[in-house]
Amino acid sequence: MAKQFALRTEYHQQMIDLAFLPALLGVARQSVSELELLRMLMESLLLELGVVDVILACVRQDDQGVSPWGIGFLHEFVSRSVSRAYLTASPGLVCWLCRRLVTGKYACTNRLILRSLWCLCTSWEAAAAPAALVEVVQPENLRHILAMFV
Question: Which residue, 48, 70, 86, sits at the end of a domain?
Fold first, then answer.
């Protein structure tokens, strides 16, 4: 059941309609020996519940309390290849991340942003990785990134 949901087969929508999400969350809480199955299940659940969209919205906020929280979650997702293809295809994400880079002494999110950008641009399973790379090398974005190393 979990594998059918994670693979997003023709049964995926039927499972949602029949309210299988609580049962699938229960499976995710149990000790699962197949770690790849657990990763796929969690990715499907996060996409279905809209968690990834909430994280993207947090990254795009100007609030200094919400934006770092979203950047931290984004880093965790892309560094572990959870919803990386979806995030890589998100329009303007690279630009928003580059705008969050600051040269101040208290810039604790810079390392997370730079690593997230690296993960987005080197995404092997996503065809959208070249698009993210093109966005990174835009003059305005590249200026923000290179300012970190001066």
Answer: 48
- Give how many domains the chain has, as a whole number: 2
Structure tokens at 6: 């994670």
pTM for this model (two decimals):
0.70
Which distant-in-sequence residues (6+ apart) come within 8 Å of 95 by Cβ?
Answer: 135, 138, 140, 141
Asked if residue 129 and residue 58 are part of one domain, the reply reads yes
- 105-112 contacts, C-beta under 8 A, 24 or more apart: 108/68, 109/67, 109/68, 109/71, 109/72, 110/148, 112/71, 112/72, 112/74, 112/75
- The answer to whether residues 36 and 59 belong to one domain is no
Whether residue 101 is predicted with pLDDT greater than 80 in this model: the reply is yes
pLDDT at 28: 62
Structural domain that includes position 108: 50-150
Residue 124: what pLDDT?
A: 59
Question: Cα 87 vs. chain centroid, distance in angstroms?
Answer: 5
pLDDT digits (tens, 9 = 90+) for 65-81: 888 888 998 998 888 88
